[in-house]
Amino acid sequence: xxxxxxxIRELCVRALEGGALDEAxxxxxxxxxxxxxxxxxxxxxxxxxxxxxxxxxxxGFVYFSTYCRNACAFCYYRVGNPESPRYRKTPxxxxxxxxxxxxxxxxxxxxxxxxxxxxxxxxAVRLVELVGAVVEATGLPVMVSPGVVDDAVLRExxxxxxxxxxxxxxxxxxxxxxxxxxxxxxxxxxxxxxxxxxVGLLVEDGLLTGIGxxxxxxxxxxxxxxxxxxxxVRVMTFVPxxxxxxxxxxxxxxxxxxxxxxxxxxxxxxxxxxxxLDVDGIRxxxxxxxxxxxxxxxIVPPTTGLAGVSxxxxxxxxxxxxxxxxxxxxxxxxxxHAGPAAYAAWVERARRxxxxxxxxxxxxxxxxRLEDGAPPARGGGTEGxx
Length: 386
Ligand code: SAM
Ligand code: MD0
Ligand code: SF4
Description:
The chain has helices spanning 5-16, 23-30, 34-52, 91-104, 117-138, 151-159, 174-180, 186-198, 215-228, 255-267, 277-280, 285-290, 323-332, 340-355; strands at 55-65, 108-113, 142-145, 164-166, 202-209, 232-237, 274-276, 295-299, 336-337.
């Protein structure tokens, strides 16, 4: 059942006035019909503009090992899938790719891998070394997406200069989770995010849609992620993958993802919310930004042999998933690349607030705009910035 447009309008006004949206209200918003969705997206854009002005951040994505010990039902890289491309880049290769990405102007490097036993062995020493080398070589903020790792590894990653830990629950409904992340305890995954925060890492959580979830599941996920107070939150539409149990599922439309982006923006105004190029490539970018996202993720350099996660090849070799490929789309929407200095300042403020137990750089305190000119935390590697 869809929600009448008048009610959507009313809830959007309430959100923009700083009123609370409980889980039921989040569900009503997620159930907007196409007309209501336009109202929802407009409110989300208004909220983004208040928090971030017209600035958007750009994340480089380096999927440096596609080996994985897990068997997530949705994932191309699940263990035992003979169809997925397997590679493990050497640290030197990763550093070289990251230098090039930094020079192209990205604001952050997202170092992502399957749960590769070779890299996770011996206290994940190879992973930690690789992350340290990238931090030193580029000076850019670094996100690590290694799957579940223990507290000692998280502490080492932070010590070597990592800024972010990304780990998506996919759904916060335990029964659905058990069908998706087969054999991976729900609580264990959730605990890893809390442990990451405890050692001083910024944290991203996220949900997957089009995979058996309903409005109530998504509303619940958004409410749980808001309570988690994570600095970045995301949603991505499931992309069916060859060689997996869900290969024959028809690809879901992205309307539920767009609504979820907008509802997250209203529920968590000052958080970073990605528009991923990994779901529908460059052609899906403007829709996601128009729904209220403020970070473009999954920028992948061509000619490096790197894959995407859910779109392993789409738009990569063509060079569309690059900073240069993204900028014209920002311009068409009246947005601009905020740039590495503004991003480093955001990270620094987020870290200070997290240390003070005070969430992300925040709504309504007059210091949340990017333009307030706080110094970047690290200066290196930003020569290619605008
Ligand atoms: N292996 C690590 C992990 O699972 O946390 C990090 C990489 S994993 C590939 C990153 C995310 O990609 C997953 O958490 C999931 O949300 C997303 N993903 C994987 N397969 C997908 C698919 N077929 N469609 C959409 N998103 C997918
Ligand atoms: C993305 N393919 O941003 C990446 C990935 C992992 N931290 C991110 C899912 O879409
Ligand atoms: Fe492995 Fe991550 Fe894919 Fe799950 S989502 S199979 S943990 S790479």
